[in-house]
Amino acid sequence: MAEPAAEPGAPRAGEILVIGTRERLLEIAGSGTIVGPQEFARTRPFTVNDILRLVPGVFPRDEEGLGARANIGVRGLNPVRSTKVLLLEDGIPLGFAPYGDNASYYHPPIERYARVEVLKGAAQIRFGPQTIGGVVNYITPAPPERFEGVFSALAGSRASAAVNARLGAPLGAGGLLLQGAWKQGEGSRANQLLRFADLFGKLVIQPAPNHELALKLSYFREDSFVTYSGLTRGEFAADPRGNPFPKRNDRFETWRLSASLGWAWMLSPEARLTTTGYWHRFSRDWWRQSSNSLQRPNDASDPACGGMANLASTCGNEGRLRDYDTFGLETRLVLPHARLLGGIGGETELGLRLHAERQARRQWNADTPGGRTPGVGVNGGVRENNERDATAIAAFAASRLDFGRLALIPGVRAEFIDFRRRNLPVDVIVGGRPTGARTEPSSGRARLDRLVPGLGATFDLGGGLVLFGGVHRGFAPPRVEDIITTTGGSVDLDAELSWDWELGLRGSPRPGLGLEATLFLMDFENQIVPQSVAGGIGATLTSAGRTLHRGGELTLSFSSAEAGVTGPGADLFARAAVTHVATAR
Fold first, then answer.
1. Is residue 6 part of a domain?
2. How many C-beta atoms lie closer than 10 Å to residue 261's C-beta?
């Protein structure tokens, strides 16, 4: 098995680092955590949640047991579908619609990655559009400097199994990396079977001195039998892991194809220009018999499905069918201040992103459990059929101004977002039955422009400790459907806005001992919440107005090898992460 990879230096082609090295973390005015190769080797993670549990302030909620659908909450924010965090892979959006629908129904296996960076606080305005909860950046491994391979396999209860293989080799001054992973399991409930495969490749070449190109390709495929519906209180009391819905009726099929091309130009040892173009195609078909208790079989509302006993025979289902295309171009320039401001140390980073995404959303209700086309019976037909677009131009500037032991880090991000929606014909339903008539098409458009400022500071206390703090504007754009109605009209739903504050202490006061303690406050001017307490990710949202999150985080780590207590061949290590949300109202 290959040795853990070394910590990175400057960003390489196709790679935008949120933090970078552990030394770089001391210069950032925001709470941050790097989970690197050593932690990966120690924890042997099975899913991404095993890694994120090492990060203070982060609450990863398991859903199906394989990490296929992430539910990541930060500092008391809603974890459902990770809508309140920004997920990145090598610095570019991992989500299929970060501007128009920031819900995560897809997550690569943790085996694809070598490091994870999590950044909160004022420093996160270098990334967007989400700047409230935090940034999670997954870093793919670099091609090795010599030929090497990794293979692992495991098996367990409930039909769980996993295989992972990786091959890498140098090619001139660059290299090639190929990886494949496959997982399956029955999850935590009856009548389920989850299975997915992930293929990933990276090619790095250096066509000229100080220039590097990186091409990345990935393909993900999931074909699972998994329900969306929960249990009633009586069903849970009878069997907490039960599932009354037949396995074959609830089917979740997705595939994702992704490509990116990155270029890095080292202008000098301190100055660099990185540019990355990216494209994702994501398709999701989820056929399910029930999404909530109101949709369960009932004689009065659906005579053709008179009770739960008919789930496998006459009860229909609904297909939530989604297709997403996402593409963009992002460039970043880092310049040392020796070129700009004379005697003031530090550096300035400038960035620009052009981004576009399109959603094709359909809901087809079938008449039978195995139906995969719109039905004509009770509760059948075409219920949703629309296209939703979001295009955005984002720019930012952030500087680090060094004044000896004190550093000030001002920054600002600008987001210019255009939303469009085209509502295509759907069936007219009267008395719960399609009439044969169709609605007329309609369309709507909305625009949202926002400045997101931030100011942070660090102070070197000496003895390996750094004091940091900051304040920044928290911003999250609404979904397309939240501001443009089914008839093309506008909805009075503003962006999610807050002022977020931090004060913390980090460092290594003794060899082998690391700590970070942070106090945080998120003061929302307008928090977006579901209108119903029971509402899930598809619930109608509303502007809730003022809300407040306040608390603290603490992480401690110890390594006997780094402390010199044991030799390099043996290491006793410990790590603890604690989060306390004292106020959430």
1. no
2. 18
